[in-house]
Amino acid sequence: MNRRIRIVSFAVLFSIIGAFCSAQVVPRKVQKGQEAWRYLIKAENAYDNGDFHEALKYAEQCKTIRRQDAAWQTYILENTLKKAKVRREGDALDRIVPTLRELEFNDAIDIITSHCEKLGTEYFDNSYNRVFDYVKVYAEYPEADYLLGKIYRLEGEDEIAFGYMKNAYDYSINLDVPMKKTDLLYDLADLSINLDRKEDYEKYLLLVVMENDFYRDSNYMRALIRTITSNSPDSMEKFFLLYRCDGADTLNALIKLGQYYEECGQVDKMLKCNALAAISATSKIESIITQRLTGYEYFSIGDLLLQCARYNDIVQWGNNNSIWQLYCSFAGSALENGNYDFARMLTEVLAENLPEEYWVLYSKRMLESKF
Question: Residue 51 phi/psi, 5° resolution?
Fold first, then answer.
């Protein structure tokens, strides 16, 4: 074989290898039955059964499949724009999508539709490029990261667990079950305490609390505090009569923040959190009592607490969730804030009507020592 033929032969060979390699890097579409969510279910089932090795394996597979799916989606959306007719439509989805249907670019249509159905068309601002950019975010699977975080936490690897859970939160827009976001934030807060990151502890609890519409309503919160600081003889009963708050998901965060601010000596923040937590707890208790006692109507905070003693499950719920302690802490924070009369009246009611003996005695001691 002469030199020229060898050069041509090698050129042909390299072109074949190059074409082969190029073909190899083209992302594959995830096959039906192999979707990431199926492996997430396997991972969660293994976790529930205590098989953490299998849970770890399936969670990692889940993440790999999601990245594969995202790579394929990126490839499809990129190649769609190589069609001149599509490019001429500009960036607006309401112009591009009809053209994609005309060209029968069904994969691109399915990708756009799936993301718009999950996040809403408003999120993408009618922009094809915003859908394309979002696919990079979609490559992350927060449910899998959250599960991995829980596994490592059980193994005592708090630093690793925190990393996975933080990544899950950073990409929480991808969560299929939005309620998991609250659980995730609570876990991040707990891990922050274990890792001695007090600022992170406060940050993640505040993120939970910010989900509460009443907390975000500055007018509501000002009115709440103004009632406490009014120094009128009926301010305490007026407080529990006037205000209600549907915030069961944020109640625990408010209680923990109140305790945190008490330790830090931040009296105004402590009062704010304890006040809203007390109203949230009262609202929940009133709702339960109203369902159980036909014709029950709220009369006073003392009467409501007295009714709780009739139900062991309510008393136990209060113990498990630090509710009776919360009412005592609320009275203490009002006193610390200089609202003597409000604090005294509330402590007197607690000493007579709390359904848990320990906190009754605590309130009585508080009356003797503080008032």
Answer: -95, 80
Q: What is the pTM of this model?
A: 0.85
CA dist 30 and 26 (Å) reads 13
pLDDT tens-place string over residues 38-66 = 999 999 999 999 999 999 999 999 999 99
Structure confidence by residue, pLDDT tens digits, 169-186:
999 999 988 778 999 999
Burial class of 21 by CB neighbour count within 10 A (0 to 12, 13 to 18, 19+): exposed
Structure tokens at 295: 């014709």
Could you tell me if 272 and 249 are in contact, meaning their C-beta atoms sit under 8 angstroms apart?
Answer: no
- What is the distance between the alpha carbons of residues 142 and 116, in angstroms, rounded to a whole number? 19
Residue 147 CB partners (closer than 8 Å, separation 6+): 40, 43, 44, 47, 55, 59
Strand partners, 92: 127
Handedness of CA 40, 46, 47, 49 (dihedral sign): positive
CA distances from 345 to 158, 225, 232, 359, 366 (A): 44, 16, 11, 16, 12
* Helices 180-194 and 248-264, axial angle in degrees (round to 10): 20
Model confidence at 100: pLDDT above 60: yes
Please classify residue 272 by burial: count the beta carbons closer than 10 Å to its beta carbon, then call 0-12 exposed, 13-18 middle and 19+ buried: buried
Tell me if 127 sits within 8 A of 39, measured CB to CB: no
Q: Give the residue carrying structure tokens 């005695």.
A: 361
Q: Count Cβ atoms below 10 Å from residue 167 Cβ, excluding itself.
A: 18
